[in-house]
Design a protein that fits this description.
It is built from eleven helices and eleven strands. About 45% of the residues lie in helices and about 15% in strands.
Amino acid sequence: LILLDSLLQEVYLMNSSKTAMRRRALLHQLSSPYLSILLLVLLGLLILIHWSVRDQLHDLQSYNEGRVADTGRTLEMVGKYKSELENLREKLRQKCDPADTHVDKVIPLPHSDLKSDEVIITNVNLKSLLNGPIPCEESCAHHPLLLDHIRSVMDKPSGTNPVLKDVEGIKNQRGQTGQMDLILKYFNNKKKGFFIEAGAWDGEDLSNTIYMETQLAWTGLLVEPNKGVYEILNGKKRNAHSINSCLSIKGYAEKVKFDTADVFGAIEDEKNPNKENLLDLRNRYQNQFRHKDVARESILVQCFPLYSLLLALGNPRVDFMSLDIEGSELDVLKTIPFDKVHIELFLIETAHSNETAITQLMTRNGYEMQPMPPFDHIYFKK
């Protein structure tokens, strides 16, 4: 027993010695500087990974909270607009059929063969009337808004004797080439007649109406589109209505380009078959312009139908009309409703227009023709 006990003690001591030796070996390994560095690196990586994951989780949480808030606001706006839409729909339903608001009515669409010129506009404004064409319930030429506007821009007669540069010389002026002698004879020197002069120029030089006004007490309407020259005309204080505009070649009010080439000034009409000859004429005589103080330029001018101008004046009986507008005479004549106006006698410059077409048009409307060389024709009521 003593020996066994001794043996067991020895074994225990040996095991204890081996365990101690393992511990000492492990502690020795752990005390190695390389292992310490490796552990520190691993610890640093773990810390960095932790911070990165924490920041990403925080950003994701903020993003999700924002999305939830945006979705809430969007749903709130949708609900608000939906409520407003329902209110508007209900108001519209009541306006369409106040006696039967509970019935949803379907407004039929126009037929597919409806043409644009069949659409009638009953609520137009002045801007649209001045920049035609637009389809009106009736002819736009006598729309009240247009007529009121014409009256507002038209200068009234002075009520006095005109301020002229040659008061004595005007007593013998009979138009541009003496054609007024025949016209005065036709009217038997009638007094207090009514004229229209389209292409009135400066109101004195080359005027076809100044003699009638100053010597026979006529009055009327002077139409001149060249703004610079019109200011000179207006300064002469003619005892007649006057307006700075052109006569429309389309039958409705519109704005057009106008070449202010002195006495040869004209609408720049690309569809005029004689446009090249007219442009050549304006260029050829540029050095002989009468009012060199008025610059030649291409400007935008408001045009009114002749019929509209007459209606703005109360549609008076016109004894005499002088039409000298450098190539647009035929187009203007086509716009006149001859059955609604009374113009006794026309003096028309035909040198730059289709003379045959003008004569045919005037003949169809009850006029006889009298040549007036070298540039004009006279047309008088049969």
